[in-house]
Amino acid sequence: MNRWFGGIEAGGTKFICLVGAGPNTIVEEIRIPTTTPVETIGRALKFFEPYARRGELAAVGIASFGPVDLNPSSSTYGCITTTPKPGWAGVDLRGQIHRALHLPVAFDTDVNAAAFGEHTWNPENHSLESLVYMTVGTGIGVGVIANGRPLHGLLHSEAGHMAVPHDINRDPFPGICPYHGDCLEGLACGPALARRWGCPAEALPAGHPAWELEGEYLAFGLANLVYTISPQRIVLGGGVAQHPDLHEIVRRQVQRILNGYLRSPLLLEKMDQYLVPPALGSRSGVLGAIAMARQVAERGG
Ligand code: ADP
Ligand code: ZN
Predict the structure, then answer these.
(1) N or C terminus: which one in the chain shows less Cβ crowding within 10 Å?
(2) How far is the CA of 132 from the centre of ligand 2 (A)?
(3) 201 in Cβ contact with 219 (< 8 Å)
């Protein structure tokens, strides 16, 4: 009874739903394409309902694409606020799951959940006070653990949209962010690579100039995060970060940009331990949602 937790990673292209208790106790997992809210949330509920009916779930965690409302005292808490994804703006994702399953539901951004997943389930990270998770995929998102907890503020981190130096003589590409043009996401997300170079990121071979430029933009973003948050570790994930050389290029570029200013051995000599790929692979978000569910269950909802 109440042995398991439900985790949902609600993404713009797919929902990952998982029942389990952690990376080594996965009971069942499904992937649902993100279509309309009615269809997609309906299929997610159908997956969890038998477990809930048998009393096997203690709580559910949701790691959502956004922007989302994370303020528990707001009337739109747990809703997706502004998204260009047709039909999804204003959807009360948390409320619908809560009302249908009658369970406590924890709710956060996909990237905060991924940061929490890497912090909770990777023993090397668990004792850290601070950690940054950056995903480079269809967009660029940043989740932050500060004082051991996911960081919320006025809204939530949108560090993927920070400004980075853009030399238009060297890179005339104007960027694709609908709000800012050449912010970090506008210059360096997967679709920006595809548009600039005329082929999907995964088709750009090692040694192509795309990767040095990509690494440099990401490194400017990450150096800014090192200056502001001073995280004890950075996890760099997402589809684009699967390119085999990207982590090494980014490490080298971060060191070049910091230029020896910050006197930590991790930054000066052990960048390979400081900037790492996700230990949970592509499951950081959904396993972060499981960790959030466990926490909300322990707190009694
Ligand atoms: P999402 O951000 O939608 O959750 P992903 O994190 O999988 O999805 O990122 C998708 C992006 O990653 C696409 O732009 C795709 O071209 C790119 N991508 C996927 N695999 C690779 C790879 N092996 N190397 C470089 N880019 C990749
Ligand atoms: Zn932007």
Answers:
(1) N
(2) 19
(3) no
Give yes or no for residue 137 CB within 6 A of ligand 1: yes
> Does the global pTM surpass 0.85?
yes
- Main-chain phi, psi angles of 156, to 5 degrees: -150, 170
Q: Which residue numbers in the chain have pLDDT < 70?
A: 1, 301
Distance CA 122, CA 145 (A): 14
CA of 2 to the centre of ligand 1 (A): 36
Q: What is the CATH number of domain 4-113+282-298?
A: 3.30.420.40
CA of 83 relative to ligand 2 center, distance in Å: 13
- Asked whether 278 lines ligand 1 (CB < 6 A), one says no
The span from the CA of 124 to the CA of 104, in Å, is: 29
Which residues in the chain are classed under CATH 3.30.420.40? 4-113+282-298, 124-278
pLDDT the model gives residue 24: 97
| Distance between CA atoms of residues 107 and 252, nearest Å | 36
CATH of domain 124-278: 3.30.420.40
Res 245: pLDDT = 97
> For 119-171, how does the pLDDT look when each residue is reduced to its tens digit (9 = 90+)?
999 999 999 999 999 999 999 999 999 999 999 999 999 999 999 999 999 99
Q: Are 218 and 160 in contact (CB under 8 A)?
A: no
Distance CA 135, CA 226 (A): 16
